[in-house]
Amino acid sequence: MTWPMVKVRDIAKAHYGKALKKEFRDESGSFEVFGSSGQVGVHSEALINYPTLIVGRKGSVGEVIWAPNGGWIIDTAYYLELLEKDTVDLRYLYYALKKANLSQRTITTSIPGLNRDDFYDSEIPLPPLAEQKRIAAILDKADAIRRKRQQAIQLADDFLRAVFLDMFGDPVTNPKRWEVKALKDISTIQIGPFGTQLHKEDYIEGGIPLVNPTHIVKGQIAPKSDLTISAEKHAELPEYHLMVGDIIMGRRGEMGRCAVVTEKESGWLCGTGSLFIRPNEVGIFSEYLNKFLSSEAIKSYLESESQGATMPNLNKTIVGNIQVPVPSELALKRFAVIKEKVLAAKAVSLKFSEETIFDSISQKAFRGEL
Fold this sequence. Notes:
By secondary structure, the protein is of the alpha+beta class. The chain has helices at 90-99, 116-120, 129-168, 183-186, 231-235, 284-293, 296-305, 316-320, 329-353, 355-366, and strands at 5-7, 12-16, 31-35, 38-43, 52-56, 64-67, 72-73, 77-82, 123-125, 179-182, 187-191, 203-204, 208-211, 216-217, 220-221, 228-229, 247-250, 258-260, 269-270, 274-279, 323-326. Its EC number is 3.1.21.-.
């Protein structure tokens, strides 16, 4: 089904927010304060007291935020007022504007922004009001399921961290009195290739991935297809090839970024900004060591020991001197059993929380296929 396309200017008025510096906010208030990225605080007064949509115009440009109770919108965002409430459902407009990808209309200057006239020229499909409400209700339900799944994933991660601490204790105080060994004595540590070995012109698209610190995200390896190397270049650097059970660690910038290399990443290249740790014993010990090296205690240690005036930088000596409590084989096996069960439950939640599923429903909704 095809619906008429309308410009935002024909259905809503975009008002500029009003500045409210943090030091002038009354934190005992109950009215939400919104910026371009969402809620940034509370205040005792509201700029508006009716439901609205907030659209980021500076900073998080094009971000669309639902504000059912109004509040105070600061000057980095617009807030919307419907021109005709009997022809447009606000909740439908929320989803339609999110689908419109407003960030594509960003004006690139020293501070990226969304011009109001450009925003007004954005078009959305506008079905009859009853159909708008039906679509909004369907997307609300889909979004609620997605959020619950995301919460379940977070709970699984929190539970696993709690189990880790309960079974192995705080890595700093070592209350379980595990034997302590220097990391260099239980593993091989390899810094990524020097700049003289791997140049900018060596990078190609669609080749063998390399892993730099920015490719280590929330304990997972997330490569970029445009930052890879050829098979020929890969063959020239065999000492930097990753193997299953290795722990890849960022050695520049943010400390504590680690991930275990799986079958999928086996053979990929350790990037110049990373290092890898190859435990003498892999398997569950790699998982334990990764958790240990990702802990806040080790992150703090690395931050205090890292070198470099402009950017923190780790070397082999700093990492090799990390003191590692080595648990018993029995404790490691018990943790492995629990971890597998938690990951299995998490996998189910991930399957149903993927953005692509919600996006698919959203696309069908705005094409009139629901």
